[in-house]
Amino acid sequence: MFEAFTYRDRELFCEEVPLRTLAERFGTPLYVYSANAMRARYRALIDAFAPDPPLVCYAIKANHNLAVIRTLALLGAGADVVSGGELMRARRAGVAAEKIVFAGVGKTEGEIRTAILEGILQFNVESAGELERIAAIARALGRTAPIALRVNPNVAASTHDKIATGRKDDKFGIPIESAPALFEHAASLPGLSLEGLHLHIGSQIFDLDSFARAYERAVALVRELHARGIRLRRLDLGGGLGVPYADEAPFDLAGYAARVRALTRGLGLRLLLEPGRFLVAEAGVLLCSVIELKQTPTRRFLILDAGMNALMRPALYGARHALWPVRAPRADEELVSVDVVGPICESSDLFGRDYVLPRLAPGALVAFRTAGAYGMVMASDYNSRPSPAEVLVDGSAVALVRARREPDAQMAGEHIPDWLVRHE
Ligand code: LLP
């Protein structure tokens, strides 16, 4: 596997570029992405399915930077979008409209209209009400909207509760039991062309049996529909492929592809996949500086210049990202155990306890691994700290692909009303 982040003479590099030089040039906190790592993941996925690769619609919610989308689009990737903003990003980055799928439980009228006019590949429809709305908007525009129905297969994937989406009590999809009737209705609704079936059972899943259980139900439904004379053309299997954050074994891509092939053989359907994390997570790090060391009677804290404002996953899901010093310790150097925190004023701003690191002084650089997915996209202005900037590395080429948002820019859309003059 292509390793983008490696030590050379104890210095951590991204491809051909020392991270230290990026911190000097662009400051910290800084997201650093490896273009070649993304390409390698994309190609591994395509190769696993050779000679019949699926259409890979990159779930741009994982990392919506235009340069990241473009990197994958240039290889032939489509996009999975969940809002008008993401649709705009995909198009601006150069993704062809006919490779875009539009998912999400709350598509607004304006978003639906725009997507129809753009000519996207399909809407992944999440409810009976949405089906009617899309049909009505398409008719009003004098167009036909291509759709797939997203089914909820009632499968509890083994992953974090907050990112499982395929259980019957989750808000996503159409209950699989009531799906056949809705497919029949959709097939007859003017303004729509029924193209396919979609499902997505959650994120960060390693267990192939979870996928297989859900896919089996979807395939059984496709067969039932075909028997009733409702022919589909596409099967969108969603994303969710897991990535290692610590010492987990990598995702069994060959096993996944083999299961998918076996389950879908002979259906005559075009396959779509919507991976997000798998393509970009390991291609990124969050580079931070140590601000302070703080020893209390009970704990030793390492305080960084990035916190939950920059990388929310630990606070939100209890996720633990490996943390590497940019300067590796010598073999005989003493290591210490520290609780790693950000500067944000709440106790949930904790990356994790008991990280084992060399002794680091203020100004030292460290990098959170596996931060290319759901990192910058979930960052916020909380506490009005400057946002991280983003850099793309391609071999020895380096580009700033998103400037840091300083507090001045953060305040740009705010306004103090004239009538707030005095208070008595
Ligand atoms: N397709 C649909 C319909 C989705 O809802 C998602 C993710 C994906 C594809 C891509 O899933 P992936 O391949 O990246 O697992 N913020 C969370 C993850 C939320 C995932 C939401 N949906 C985290 O940081 O773990």
Biggest sheet features: 9 strands, mixed
What does the average pLDDT come to?
96
Distance between the termini: 67 Å
Strand content: 25-35%
Q: What's the number of structural domains?
A: 2
Bound molecules: ligand LLP
**What is the overall shape?**
globular
DSSP summary, beta strand count: 21
CATH architecture of the largest domain: Alpha-Beta Barrel
Please describe the structure with a list of short key phrases separated by commas or semicolons:
TIM Barrel, Lyase, Ornithine Decarboxylase, Chain A, domain 1, nine-stranded mixed β-sheet, globular, binds ligand LLP, 25% strand, 424 residues, alpha/beta, 2 domains, 21 strands
